[in-house]
Here is the input.
Amino acid sequence: MRTIKFRGKDESGEWQYGNLVRYKEDDGEEVTCIVATERCEVSAELAFVPVDEKTVGEISDLLDKDGNEIYEDDVIECGSRRYVCEFIEGGFEFRDLSDGELILKAIVIHSHIIGNIHDNPELKLN
Here is the structure.
């Protein structure tokens, strides 16, 4: 069964992990929150943590060679090549940062995460 989990950066710049919730305040302002599952384990109350919408990414349900979960916008490295994880037409794909070409997901098991485009903007595709 596929894991559904998101991450997003809160106002302090920390990553929050859990379920994604979007709602409108009484004044009509849209709010994007992560129900922070790590915080819920120590509290009986749900922890709705507002996050920056631009940083929200879903887990791909794939692991790198070190066993780390790969999220949308993560950058992986395999040999001398780097790829960014993107959600495209209903599925996760990996785009080569040097030429923009998509690769087979099978390469992921030979790669490791080196960052993401939010913490490491210098890694973005030009």
Observations:
- The first strand starts at residue 6 and ends at 9.
- Residues 16 and 25 are 21 Å apart (CA to CA).
- The domain at 57-123 is CATH 2.30.30.290 (SH3 type barrels.).
- Residues 37-40 form the longest helix (4 residues).
